[in-house]
## 1
Amino acid sequence: MAASSPRNPPPLRGAENQDPLSEMADEDSDEGEDIFVGNSNPVAESFQPDTANGEEPADLFSEEETSTAVNSSITTFKSNGVHSDNENDLFAEVSVELSMENPSTTAKTSGAEFTPSLTLSATQPRSMEQLEEEKDEDSFDMDVAVTNPEKIGDGMNAYMAYKVSTRTTLPMFRNRTFSVWRRFSDFLGLYEKLSVKHSLNGCIIPPPPEKSVVGMTKVKVGKEDSSSADFVERRRAALERYLQRVVCHPSLLQDPDVREFLERDELPRAVGTHTLSGAGFLKMINRASDAVSKMTIKISYSDAWFDNKLQEVESEDLQLRKLHAVVDSLVNHRKELCGNTAVFAKSMAMLGNSEDNTALSRALSQLAEVEDKMETLHQEQAASDFFILAELLADYIRLLGAVRGCFEQRMKTWQRWQEAQSTLQKKREVEAKLLWANKPDKLQQAKEEITEWEGKVTQYERDFDRISVTVRKEFLRFEKEKSKDFKSQIVKYLESLLQSQQRLVMFWEAFLPEAKAIA
Amino acid sequence: MTSTLDDSEKEKARSVSVDLNNDASLLIDIPDALCERDKVKFTVHTKTTLSSFQKPDFSVPRQHEDFIWLHDTLVETEDYAGLIIPPAPPKPDFESPREKMHKLGEGEATMTKEEYTKMKQELEAEYLAVFKKTVQVHEVFLQRLSSHPILSKDRNFQIFLEYDQDLSVRRKNAKETFGSFFKNMVKSADEVIISGIKEVDDFFEQEKTFLLDYSSKIKDSTARAEKMTRSHKNVADDYIHISATLNSLSVDDNTALKKHLEKFADLFEKLRKVEGRVASDEELKLTELLRYYMLDIQAAKDLLYRRARALADYENSNKALDKARLKSKDITQAEEHQQQCLQKFDKLSESGKRELTSFKGRRVVAFRKNLIEMAELEIKHAKNNMALLQGCIELLKSN
């Protein structure tokens, strides 16, 4: 792993020892190609690790981004240090844990891998939490991955294409495993479609990653440096997390657009996304929700619940932003430390060459090598800081924006109901006036309008109740997902820190005898 | 703020120069120091069995400038031209923590009370570390003198240790400033001289080559090491902010996440203490080691310069003698002068060889000690970190 590899989470142990997959046919034909060897039915739990899994393909793309290398990469990805030679399963880690028969469950080495938060060994009984989830979500079996970013075309018309692979046992899909190629605007297009349809119901729709003119331009003009590789990797990981959140959502999963996105070979090019990116949409929502929150609305005691939650969301948003800024600062400082260590290592090497005492000279050169290794450690750690921690925070800052949007939708629905009520009231007043003024022909029309508006009031009240229920449900679901997500990412981050320290100990322990040998 | 360093701390602190202060006939230490604003007042404590001193046990207050005065008088003493004069201790530099303290004050409004308190504590610790460091380097300077067979007998050294009035501190007045400036100019001319001079002795030839090269490399390494340890401190400081923000997050959270965040915040707080220690140990064992020997090598180079000048003087005196013989004028004078130069040169060469050889040994021993200690500390801290991390991971997973 050279110092020049792009920033990404530390590679998985044992990743190097995998046999490359035998020819993986490109893309969508599933015949004979077994990207996924379906294991016994993984249960709902298979979801949670998704976000953890999301990071793994990252390593592979640090090494090579050509489709030929993909084969070995996919394999290394799935094994995660679990040495299973015969399973070419993209989601092996997920299924490995849950399947009772899988022998590789026990082969896991400790500490050094990304283990999803729910680690079940063959012998461990399921915890209460997991059983509860099994009840809530009936046999969801759905895994998606976004891999293999490939640059298509040249110059300013170039774009990155990403492979979206799905594995599922849900009957609504034509096949059990399949993949398609999508570009960034396709993801945005999906979001737009889902927003249009579901945000009115109070659904929390996961927002996609933001557009980035600067980042993409660099990629387009073919700048083959680590920052554009970083950018692509960052985007790939974010797109994967985005999709995972979408398919995790029980209602969204049912949406035919989602199905089409995952399954259909050629997707009509999404238009208008150049103006409407996730961020732009969110900005709209935020502005509107600010306006709404200024209105004082107290209708029933249950509204206190919504008020409280909205306030919580807003203060959480502030804190997350603050935390994100600090983590950003940490990433930068670590990168700085990395650079300074590298420079120091070189300087130490020169000093060692200069030193005339042989043993000391050797020790100084060894010290230079240790510091070189430290530089790599710092670099990997900075990548962990970024890809695990910072991106998690960024995701949730965006998600909180979507949550706010939901609340705002509910408010709008309430407003509409109130307005209908006041319109109805006005119509009744008109009717009363007409009665008194005795204008029978206009009276008929007035009565019709009253009926119409009575209908609307009932409708809108029902809408409001319904959206309130949905928003509440969505919010609770969101909080649960958030807890799981954070916990699994925190554990992952800590494990990367742990691995870092372990290697540190190794390096210095190797150096110690050299120092002692000085005479 | 006063600081009393107990013996074990001093044992640990005194790392750059080994085997000092072993001779019971003259024991020197700085048991405490006072810091007022910019000025540090050291208490120099001497215990001696030598009759040349008036009392067997006594202390005097001294300022940094007094140490500089002592150093400079030693350098200017002709008799010591053949010795490596221990480098003067660097001026106490509280710039970095003071600047940080200032920034902290400015940013106080943006952080929580706990965060502010922690940062303040961290800065106070840094301040204390600088303080301890400066006490240590001043102490080492005196101890190098006291362990040197010749320098320990210096009259000015004795005055420094004993004179219980305020030394009429010969701050660098205008004349002396000019004098030192002139000296520095002469020194750069010296560099040209010694690089150009034809060396008669293999030993010195090798030493010259070695020292010139090593000197520039170690200067570079010192600067780089300093930058590296400073980055390390920045990372440790970031951990404080992360821990504080995580705490705020957990306070507001009412879900299952609350406990996780608390544990995470707590972990970061513990980790940053370890990282802070890593950074400061690195600084002490690595950066300070390099810095000290950078200065020491400069002192060794100075010795070479003086010897080279003596050689040049000798060669000039030879030429003068030849000229005198040709002119048959002032021959005796020229002969005498030539003899003097030769004597001086020989004395310098002999003493210089001794000094440089022992310097080499001293350097190797100090490097060995410090590198071993640094490696051991890195391992210790990393294992500490690992234990903390493993504990937290288990806690989180078991939940």
## 2
Amino acid sequence: MEFAELIKTPRVDGVVLHRPFMPTVEGTLCLTGHHLILSSRQDNTEELWLLHANIDSIEKRFVGSLGTIIVKCKDLRVIQLDIPGMEECLNIASSIEALSTLDSVSLMYPFFYRPLFEVIEDGWQLFVPEEAFKDLESMTDEWRLSEVNKDFSVCPSYPSLLTVPKDIDDESLCKAASFRHGGRFPVLSYYHKKNGMVMMRAAQPLTGTNGRRCKEDEKLINATLCAGKRGYIIDTRTIAVAQQAKARGGGFEQEANYPQWRRIHKAIERSNVLQEGLIKLVEACNDQSHSMDRWLSKLEASNWQSNVKEILTTACLAAQCIDREGASVLVHGTEGTDSTLQVTSLAQIILDPACRTIRGFEALIEREWLQAGHPFQQRCAQSAYSNGKPRSEAPVFLLFLDCVWQILRQFPCSFQFNENFLIMLFEHAYASQFGTFLGNSVAERLKLLLSQKTVSLWSWVNRPQELERFLNPLYEPNNLVIWPSVAPQSLLLWEGVFLRWNRSTKCLDEAYQEMVHIIEYNKELQNKVNSLRRQLAQLETEDGPLQTP
Amino acid sequence: MCHIKQVKLLDRFSNKSVTGTLHLTATHLIFVESNSTSAQEIWILHHHIASVEKLSLTTSGCPLLIQCRNFRLVHFVIPRERDCHDIYSSLLRLLRPVSYDELYAFSYNPKQNDQQREEGWQLIDLAAEFERMGVPCDQWQLTDVNREYKVCETYPRDLYVPITASKPIIIGSSKFRSKGRFPVLTYFYQEKKAAVCRCSQPLSGFSARCLEDEHMLQAISKANHNSRYIYVMDTRPKLNALANRAAGKGYENEDNYPNIRFQFVGIENIHVMRGSLQKLLEVMGTRSLSMTDYLVGLENSGWLRHIKAIMDAAIFLAKAVTDEGASVLVHCSDGWDRTAQVCALGSLLLDPYYRTIKGFMVLIEKDWISFGHKFADRCDQLDPDPKEVSPIFTQFLECVWQLTEQFPQAFEFSEWFLIQIHEHVHSCQFGNFLGNSQRLKERTYSLWAHLLSEKQNYLNPVYSPSFAESHPVLEPSTQAYHFKFWRNMYHQYDRSMHPRQSILKHVLTLKESNRELEGTVQALKTVSSPQQFERSHPPRPQSLILGAPLLSRKEVQQEEDEEVFGEEAREDAPASTGGERTVEGSSATENGYGELKGSFDSKNEPAVVTLEFGVARMTC
């Protein structure tokens, strides 16, 4: 086993663990191939099991022969381990470093994890494109499922099955693909049942500096418009950024070639900028010495809340075009794998009540993120404590979850899931025992044989025992479009993630429990009333007709 | 009474507007929307109006901008300039009452008789409150020295002082304190026998001393055997206190006062606070505010910094009392602004009683009203002096709100209670806050009775009385990130910014329904028990008969939905065949996601209901 070579010291006694808002624990530290374990070897005490993959970075400090390792995790937790003995400490530190930065995906924990529960419903089979297409077919016959990408040669980041307009043949799709960045030609993202309008997504067109055009691309997106109708193209970049992209072969749809479309530019930041923002934000949240002014100015400088506002605004705009203007929409940025997906998935949450259920939200993530080719492996390789130069890490998915949380805050009764569900998804996107978020595309996942070799996150989450934690007791299904406020006064810092380890939540948790109790008690009382009424009715019928008093 | 038709009301943050009729009555300015289906009404009490501004004439009419003290801002466009000017000048006259008789409190009549009115005033009994704290006791006594309000006219009649503080000491001390406000007891922490006392600054100048005043502090110190020293908290920044010395005022010199630990706290004065709120409101009122401008504006206004400073001071006080068992004497300059904030908030941290509805009323009555916080000046009720206006009491309410965010189960009341109190501090509808210290009870009504009568609206559904047992003393964190902008106060009338579904309202309804259901269960059990049933057929209330509508949760929800969604639903129904509804206040264009200029066939957005939950509409 190659892990053994990386573990220089597998076990140290007398290690002291410090965690904020929790008592310190003294015990034995063990390193395994995938976990850092600290156990006090006493009954009734919680053991710390930390996935190496969850470790973002570590720091070492020495005072005499006592070494200290500060472990900073991708879920933003920071813990401190006091390790007696300089050599042990150095060994542990270098082992952790090596184990938490394994290059090969197939060495990751999901390939070794064996579930202790019986998989009843296999999450890998839960959300297949064919099923989604059946739903679509029941509403419209304008679309077909194309196999043009079945060997991933037309577009490596797309899945093998894609929903496209019925009248466009595979040959045209190939031509349109060659005109779009990374081969990501326009495909259906969402069909709005209420008025038949659609949302499509793609990557930028490769117009370049000389204004190249592609008839098939034009035909493809025009095929989604009803006669005489016009549509909107939402470019997630500013016009300036889109102009610059031309120099590198990219670009945007020229009005002359797309006369039926109106282009709107928004200003969602590129992914590398987002990573800097996350680092700054977490730094500000972790510094307990900030004065009020310093805190606010650091929060502002991180730009995190601005990003949330911009993404949410763009998604609302897309939804507004579809629902209020009755127009179809095409969304793209540069690659079409980041900001594009934030916008299309959030717009669906606003428009489609099904996406606000647990199953529906899982399906949305599966459709709009995993199958749509968001490069999770690259984006989530490092989190807020990465100290190296960022390569392609970026909290694109976390920002999406943050936006969902903002909508959830404003419509607390409209979602079947609660905040814990979103936090759980954040954790598993960065480090997990499940294979769901491994790989960067459907093609990669197939190659890794994830569905055979690893367990799906959904197989675990959807078990009733687990699901209970994620249910929103306030949920009452409604079929309405929900328009969130995007005023800065309405958007809050997501404390559940960013202040999670910096505050005691005991009082808040207890209050939440009390709320749950009130809701459950209400259900119980209603059942009681109903059964008593039934009893009474029975008595009355046995007793013959009643005189009215 | 006059009315003007075809007046447009512009939305503050979007381009929407509604048309209606403007009525001017002796007490209110009323706008009634003419659209027969939604017909929203806005009632603005003249006393709530802080400023009226006539803007320059536009093509559609003459704009009139009205800013209210409860943070409402309305923008009317009146077709004829004449009318606009009439309204403008009438309002200018009406919003500056010149005598007490003109205040709404003297015309407000809630259809109660004199006895009920009288009972309203007797709800809060401060003597009983001191008794609850355990005063008088072997160390603290009631003094009648201020019986005629001669020693200090801004203090209440009944005052509590250490038993060793004789009359000459009191009178001597009062002569050495600004406005005669000598050290007196405001809260007694029975467990440690520690006292929270308050006063104004000493007239020490650069070197003056007063033996009686020194004795007075000595007496306070001696009354507490648990600690050899007392804390003297000067709530001002040191620089301000130093500057006061030049005017013959100042602070206690530790050399002259044995056994004191002197501490500056650094809360800014009323002028800084007024400016800060002004800046805050300016930023928050900006249309299409960017996140950057919002956060920078929040920082530059300094508002949350001031809130944190007050909270820090209160925590300092509470820690001194509980951890060290020491008595604390609090003062600022005159001892009626910062001192009131710190004493009241400190007591609230120390004593769970003040976190109940009744207890909170007592606290306000004690530390704010009886000790002479100048409500008339600070809230600009009468005879306005712009330099005296300051949101001191608002800050106190906000500090309490910040605490409710950290301790959701500690308070019997919800934020709507705080907001409603704020509303009435400015409304001059009740007698409680009128005047600077003199009470005008004879012909007015008490707010407390009114609020208690609508107690249901202000309850916190997750309040847990047992929380007080496990957390008798609140120990909030004062990390900067715990302080948030209080949107529901400063934007209470800007519905588009609020969460579209209120957890508070929802859970409150459920809790209410639980109580009713419990009753139904009881009643059903009685009638359906076989013995009972056979013995006689007791007359049963209508609701128990099978088939009678059971007010189930679903139905309650439905009713609520109808109330909430009704307006949009009806608006939408003829237009869209699907009968599509949207969640109240949740419409696409209002939120300004982006201007779809030249959009192809932009529909008119249906109007949104102004549903002022928790802010009961006033009636005259």
